[in-house]
Amino acid sequence: MASSNKRQNKRSTALVLTEAVLVSYVSYIASFVLVSLQITAKPNSEALAINIFLLMMAILVCSLSVGLYETKLRETFRGIIRRIFVSLVLSFFIVEIVTSALFTQLDLDAYFLPTAVCFNIVTLVFFRYFTNRLGLMGLSSSRILVLGAGVRASIIESRMRRDVDRLGFELVGFVPIPGDDRQSGVLREKIIHVKVDDSFRQFLTDNNIEEIIVACDQRRGTLPVSVLFDCRLRGIEVTDLLDFMERERGQIVVDLMYPSWVIYSNGFHSQNYLRESVDYVLNITLATFVMFFAWPFMLITALIIYIDDGFRTGASVFYKQERVGKDGKLFNILKFRSMRPDAEKDGAKWATKNDNRVTGIGNFIRKYRIDELPQLLNVLKGEMSFIGPRPERPEFVQQLVKEVPYYNQRHNVKPGLAGWAQLNYPYGASVRDSLEKLKFDLYYVKHQSLLLDILILIRTVEIVLFGKGR
Mind telling me which residue stretches traverse the membrane in this protein (predicted)? Predict the structure, then answer.
């Protein structure tokens, strides 16, 4: 079997070259359309060529930086659109700065750059759609084989049932390994009975397997290490089930974690010291910007809550509650009150869906996340970030630390107004729900980056606008 690394490099190279030609051509068409419609005068040919080249290079570099040329990118098409949008917007600012501020002799008509960027966004979205849909340029799903058909392997069957969950791969089947719990294991997927020995190599070649997922229930004495070693040398990817789920599902499967995986993974502490140092400044700037536009809605909300029951009960329109922040430090979170004043007369309780303690106006402001707006003050005080795991109450944290493994790791970063777990898991209020959300929270802690923050912000805005609050 040919080396998968070489095949992947060829795919990436072909994609980069094709998009370079496509961006250059579309940018020229944008200029041609503007001139033909007499919106702009005919530009200097040399300046136009340099601008097109700069835009093409900026788009390629930005696309590379957001992972669009990553052969193992496992993303829904909506996620790819977001990445294209972020890449093109960044490219616009880069070229604008270069041509307007640094090299004014290259500056073209003000309509050219935004028009070229818009044309390219549409073109690249359609191009990526058809290349992925039709499997052009080797960008279709890769063929994978799962070693194991027991309880651990069944997580793929149970949590990746839909076609959209398998967008990035084609599952050939599951190979039972001695020691697998077959009674509680894979039930509906294709089971392949093949010996994992020296002849296994031929099976992989005949079926064009590109990646092997190790998901057997017992490893000691049953895992064919020598065979997997040979496969790895021949260019076939060998991936642990935990890494596979982390990559494909954007979560860390806490209940299947084992100590050696934690030791050899890249950990759950941020190593990006520059990001940590500028994080507060970015959050302050963004909080101030949002506050500038949000304060009228906050004022109206406060008045409505006061009229609804505040005037009658004398209760504050705001609600302060102790929460656990970064490194376990306690702070008081500030929200608009959405429950009755006596909601916790019997002690702390989990908030539930359709909670009868929620007021009429409370249902509305929760649905559109308006009740969270006062937390901008927590951001300004440095107690919270815009993006991060949602802060939990200390009473619940004490319980969850005992019952949910690795729960304290979510406190390695500042809590946030919006989080990866809130986007990927429906509303829940139990230890089981906390375990499921923790899988996404730990993924964020481990993979936190500016791009991931931007993607979460974009999806959060979508949820707020369409009232899909979780």
Answer: 12-35, 47-69, 81-104, 110-130, 280-307
